[in-house]
Protein backbone atom coordinates (compact mmCIF):
# COMPACT_ATOMS: atom_id res chain seq x y z
CA UNK A 1 0.00 0.00 0.00
CA UNK A 2 1.30 3.41 -0.89
CA UNK A 3 0.72 6.51 1.19
CA UNK A 4 1.68 8.81 -1.67
CA UNK A 5 -1.74 10.27 -2.31
CA UNK A 6 -0.05 13.39 -3.68
CA UNK A 7 3.61 14.26 -4.26
CA UNK A 8 5.09 15.94 -1.20
CA UNK A 9 6.39 19.10 -2.82
CA UNK A 10 7.61 22.22 -1.05
CA UNK A 11 5.24 24.34 -3.10
CA UNK A 12 2.28 22.26 -1.96
CA UNK A 13 2.83 22.09 1.77
CA UNK A 14 3.14 25.81 2.44
CA UNK A 15 4.27 26.55 5.96
CA UNK A 16 4.89 22.87 6.57
CA UNK A 17 7.93 23.15 4.29
CA UNK A 18 9.74 25.08 7.04
CA UNK A 19 10.75 21.75 8.54
CA UNK A 20 12.18 20.59 5.24
CA UNK A 21 14.13 23.77 4.63
CA UNK A 22 15.50 23.95 8.17
CA UNK A 23 16.54 20.31 8.49
CA UNK A 24 20.27 19.61 8.30
CA UNK A 25 19.43 16.30 6.60
CA UNK A 26 17.28 17.94 3.93
CA UNK A 27 17.45 16.22 0.57
CA UNK A 28 19.81 13.57 1.93
CA UNK A 29 18.89 9.95 1.38
CA UNK A 30 19.12 9.12 5.05
CA UNK A 31 17.32 5.85 4.45
CA UNK A 32 20.62 4.72 2.92
CA UNK A 33 22.98 6.47 5.31
CA UNK A 34 21.11 5.55 8.49
CA UNK A 35 20.25 1.92 8.04
CA UNK A 36 17.27 0.47 9.83
CA UNK A 37 14.16 1.94 11.39
CA UNK A 38 15.88 3.03 14.59
CA UNK A 39 18.59 4.78 12.61
CA UNK A 40 15.92 6.75 10.75
CA UNK A 41 14.17 7.67 14.01
CA UNK A 42 17.47 8.79 15.55
CA UNK A 43 18.34 10.92 12.51
CA UNK A 44 15.01 12.73 12.51
CA UNK A 45 15.09 13.12 16.31
CA UNK A 46 18.52 14.72 15.99
CA UNK A 47 17.25 17.07 13.26
CA UNK A 48 14.33 18.13 15.47
CA UNK A 49 16.69 18.83 18.36
CA UNK A 50 19.36 20.57 16.26
CA UNK A 51 16.83 22.93 14.71
CA UNK A 52 15.06 23.53 18.04
CA UNK A 53 11.73 22.53 16.54
CA UNK A 54 8.92 22.51 19.09
CA UNK A 55 7.67 18.93 19.17
CA UNK A 56 4.06 19.80 20.02
CA UNK A 57 3.88 22.35 17.20
CA UNK A 58 5.34 19.83 14.75
CA UNK A 59 2.81 17.22 15.81
CA UNK A 60 -0.15 19.59 15.65
CA UNK A 61 0.84 20.93 12.25
CA UNK A 62 0.50 17.51 10.67
CA UNK A 63 -2.72 16.32 12.32
CA UNK A 64 -5.58 16.51 9.86
CA UNK A 65 -8.38 14.37 11.24
CA UNK A 66 -9.61 16.70 13.98
CA UNK A 67 -9.03 14.26 16.84
CA UNK A 68 -5.48 15.28 17.74
CA UNK A 69 -3.84 12.14 16.36
CA UNK A 70 -1.68 11.21 13.38
CA UNK A 71 -2.64 8.60 10.82
CA UNK A 72 0.04 6.66 8.92
CA UNK A 73 -0.51 9.05 6.01
CA UNK A 74 0.05 12.05 8.32
CA UNK A 75 3.23 10.48 9.69
CA UNK A 76 4.46 9.66 6.19
CA UNK A 77 4.09 13.30 5.14
CA UNK A 78 5.69 14.55 8.36
CA UNK A 79 8.72 12.27 7.98
CA UNK A 80 9.12 13.16 4.32
CA UNK A 81 9.25 16.85 5.22
CA UNK A 82 12.68 15.99 6.68
CA UNK A 83 13.98 13.40 4.24
CA UNK A 84 13.01 10.56 1.94
CA UNK A 85 11.23 7.85 3.92
CA UNK A 86 9.61 4.83 2.30
CA UNK A 87 6.09 3.54 2.89
CA UNK A 88 7.47 0.41 4.55
CA UNK A 89 9.75 2.38 6.89
CA UNK A 90 6.85 4.68 7.81
CA UNK A 91 4.69 1.67 8.64
CA UNK A 92 7.44 0.11 10.77
CA UNK A 93 7.99 3.37 12.66
CA UNK A 94 4.26 3.82 13.20
CA UNK A 95 3.81 0.27 14.48
CA UNK A 96 6.56 0.73 17.07
CA UNK A 97 4.22 2.88 19.17
CA UNK A 98 0.75 1.96 17.88
CA UNK A 99 0.55 -0.94 20.29
CA UNK A 100 -3.24 -1.19 20.24
CA UNK A 101 -3.21 -1.12 16.42
CA UNK A 102 -5.97 1.47 16.20
CA UNK A 103 -4.29 3.26 13.30
CA UNK A 104 -3.84 6.46 15.31
CA UNK A 105 -0.74 7.94 16.94
CA UNK A 106 -1.43 10.31 19.83
CA UNK A 107 1.00 12.92 21.12
CA UNK A 108 2.37 10.75 23.90
CA UNK A 109 3.16 8.01 21.37
CA UNK A 110 4.76 10.60 19.10
CA UNK A 111 6.93 11.80 22.00
CA UNK A 112 8.09 8.26 22.62
CA UNK A 113 9.60 8.30 19.15
CA UNK A 114 11.10 11.76 18.91
CA UNK A 115 11.47 13.40 22.33
CA UNK A 116 15.03 12.88 23.61
CA UNK A 117 13.84 13.59 27.17
CA UNK A 118 10.92 11.15 27.11
CA UNK A 119 10.92 9.07 30.26
CA UNK A 120 13.22 11.49 32.08
CA UNK A 121 12.07 13.69 34.95
CA UNK A 122 12.23 17.22 33.54
CA UNK A 123 11.47 20.69 34.87
CA UNK A 124 8.01 20.39 33.32
CA UNK A 125 7.27 17.25 35.33
CA UNK A 126 8.42 19.13 38.42
CA UNK A 127 6.25 22.16 37.63
CA UNK A 128 3.24 19.89 37.09
CA UNK A 129 3.72 18.28 40.52
CA UNK A 130 4.39 21.66 42.11
CA UNK A 131 1.12 22.99 40.68
CA UNK A 132 -0.72 20.09 42.30
CA UNK A 133 0.98 20.82 45.64
CA UNK A 134 0.15 24.52 45.31
CA UNK A 135 -3.52 23.68 44.74
CA UNK A 136 -3.54 21.38 47.78
CA UNK A 137 -2.13 24.16 49.96
CA UNK A 138 -4.63 26.67 48.54
CA UNK A 139 -7.57 24.37 49.28
CA UNK A 140 -6.40 24.23 52.88
CA UNK A 141 -6.18 28.01 53.02
CA UNK A 142 -2.39 27.92 53.20
CA UNK A 143 0.46 29.24 51.05
CA UNK A 144 3.12 26.90 49.77
CA UNK A 145 5.30 29.96 49.18
CA UNK A 146 5.16 31.03 52.82
CA UNK A 147 5.66 27.46 53.99
CA UNK A 148 9.11 27.31 52.41
CA UNK A 149 10.14 30.96 52.76
CA UNK A 150 11.72 30.10 56.10
CA UNK A 151 13.34 33.45 56.89
CA UNK A 152 10.25 35.40 55.84
CA UNK A 153 12.23 37.81 53.66
CA UNK A 154 9.93 37.47 50.64
CA UNK A 155 12.34 35.50 48.45
CA UNK A 156 13.45 31.89 48.10
CA UNK A 157 17.18 31.26 47.86
CA UNK A 158 18.60 28.02 46.50
CA UNK A 159 18.68 26.35 49.93
CA UNK A 160 14.99 27.08 50.55
CA UNK A 161 14.11 26.04 47.02
CA UNK A 162 15.99 22.77 47.56
CA UNK A 163 13.82 21.91 50.57
CA UNK A 164 10.72 22.69 48.50
CA UNK A 165 11.97 20.67 45.53
CA UNK A 166 12.77 17.63 47.68
CA UNK A 167 9.33 17.86 49.29
CA UNK A 168 7.85 17.59 45.79
CA UNK A 169 10.28 14.97 44.44
CA UNK A 170 12.44 13.41 47.20
CA UNK A 171 15.06 11.74 44.97
CA UNK A 172 16.14 14.81 42.99
CA UNK A 173 19.85 15.32 42.48
CA UNK A 174 21.55 18.63 43.29
CA UNK A 175 22.19 19.36 39.61
CA UNK A 176 18.49 18.89 38.84
CA UNK A 177 17.50 21.22 41.68
CA UNK A 178 19.89 23.88 40.38
CA UNK A 179 18.54 23.43 36.87
CA UNK A 180 14.94 23.81 38.07
CA UNK A 181 15.86 26.83 40.20
CA UNK A 182 17.44 28.52 37.18
CA UNK A 183 14.28 27.87 35.17
CA UNK A 184 12.25 29.79 37.75
CA UNK A 185 14.96 32.45 38.13
CA UNK A 186 14.53 33.91 34.64
CA UNK A 187 15.99 37.23 35.84
CA UNK A 188 19.22 35.60 36.96
CA UNK A 189 18.89 37.24 40.39
CA UNK A 190 19.96 34.21 42.39
CA UNK A 191 16.70 34.26 44.33
CA UNK A 192 13.02 33.84 43.55
CA UNK A 193 10.32 36.36 44.30
CA UNK A 194 6.72 35.33 44.65
CA UNK A 195 6.19 36.80 41.16
CA UNK A 196 8.90 34.52 39.70
CA UNK A 197 7.28 31.60 41.46
CA UNK A 198 3.67 32.25 40.54
CA UNK A 199 4.23 33.22 36.91
CA UNK A 200 5.71 29.74 36.40
CA UNK A 201 3.28 27.58 38.36
CA UNK A 202 0.19 29.58 37.41
CA UNK A 203 1.01 29.77 33.70
From TrEMBL:
Keywords: Calcium. GO terms for molecular function: calcium ion binding. InterPro entries: EF-hand-dom_pair, EF_Hand_1_Ca_BS, EF_hand_dom. Residues 85-120, 136-171 form the EF-hand domain. PROSITE patterns: EF_HAND_1, EF_HAND_2. The keyword Calcium applies. This is EF-hand domain-containing protein. It comes from Pseudocohnilembus persalinus.
Amino acid sequence: MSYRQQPILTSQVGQQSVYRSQSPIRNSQISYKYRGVQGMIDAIRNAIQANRIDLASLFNRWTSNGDGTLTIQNLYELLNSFCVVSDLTTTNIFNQVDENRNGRMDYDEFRRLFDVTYGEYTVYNFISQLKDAHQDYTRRGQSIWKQFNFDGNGTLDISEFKVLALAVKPNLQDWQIRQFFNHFDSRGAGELTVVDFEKTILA
